[in-house]
Design brief:
The complex is a heterodimer of chains A (100) and B (194). By secondary structure, chain A is mainly α. Chain A contains 3 helices and no strands. Helix content of chain B is 68%, strand content 0%. Classes of the chains: A mainly alpha (100), B mainly alpha (194).
Chain lengths: 100, 194
Amino acid sequence: MTPISYYMALSAILFAIGVTGVLIRRNVIVMFLSIELMLNAVNLALVALGRRIGSMDGQVIVFFVMTVAAAEAAVGLAIIIAMFRNRETVNADELNLLRW
Amino acid sequence: MPVGIFAFLAVLAVITGLGVILQRNPVHCVLALALVLTDLGVIFMGLGAVTVGFLQIIVYVGAIMVLFLFVIWLLNIQVDPGAGGHLGLKLLGAVAAAAMAGEFAEVIEHTPKISQIATVPADFGSVAELARYLFTDYLVAFEVTSVLLLAAVVGAIALARRVSPSLVLVAPVAARGATSPPEPDVPVARRESA
């Protein structure tokens, strides 16, 4: 059997990759994808620790995270479409309307 | 799950995860993320969470990733021109992410290695077991989730639809000092960007 620590390490690596993606990419769709990657890294930690203590609660929370991610993707992509229609760009650096 | 299989899946997940953030073409990024999610779904199944693993593949890969692909095709986004913009900020971001990864490594190194795992009943992670939790302990959260999804559907439609000219209020146009009435079949968004 694989120790649960390995799953936690994989989860941490994937989360760090997601954070890096949000910080270094300027395409809003890729930033969005990186957020989904972070959500899934946390899902892995929840499932692994739930398995370790023999509880279903982690899996139920993963189910809810999936639902929230679906709602977030729908609204976020709608915002991206509306933004693209008005500004013709998906580059986060060019969306500076709220800048001081 | 045997260590060999886990190692294969973990290496695949990290490589495709790096593919998500390092590829230029957004379509390739989405496909790489779909691979990561499928991979994680298999890992979930290996951990006994069979239902959640299948839901992951069906809902995430089958629905959410396809939605991303449709949006990219709809917007006709060209390949990223490359490293532009504030290179200093990107460097700062990479340093911050590396610092966070270092913190994670430190935490994992100083945590005692968990090797014993609870014994679970045979139906652990089955559809029936998950549903029993959803409809007893988590019933309120489950119902609130349906409201959340309804709100997301309404919000997405309200944000993404084109405003038809017949629904536009007259007042904002008059406030902008438009003397002639707007042409009837040009959507408002188009007129503003022109």
